[in-house]
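Problem 12. The chain below contains 132 residues. Write out its predicted structure in token notation.
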Amino acid sequence: MARRTNKKIDFQKVALNTLTVGATGVAAHVIAEAIDLQKPEYADYGMLAAGIILPEVIKSPTVETAGNALLAVGAYRLAERNNIAGKLGFNTVPATAGLPGRYTIGSPWASAREVYANAPDEKKNSATATVQ
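Solution.
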């Protein structure tokens, strides 16, 4: 039989951590996109370094949480830039990439669906797509 503890959740701490992670992640991503670098991956490396070094220099729970956000955003941006998901076999092409012809949508584990783009309807002035 499992023991139950009377530990309560500190919602104020959870909310503060959530806001810190969200604000740090958004700010880091926006700043990295705003900086015009010849090698944009340097901003990603900088985020990873800041996420490791800042919590060691400034001992604070808030800075530790912000460091975790910097690590997450930096790692995500590097993985996206190096197409890690595509190398692992996941389909990284958007399902509605213009639909000029025929595209196969799906992952290696599910059966593929084929999407055919239809010619624009002159009466409705819009294009439609058929999924089979």
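Discussion. Strands lie at 102-105, 113-117, 129-131. Students who got a different answer should revisit the alignment rule from Section 12.3.
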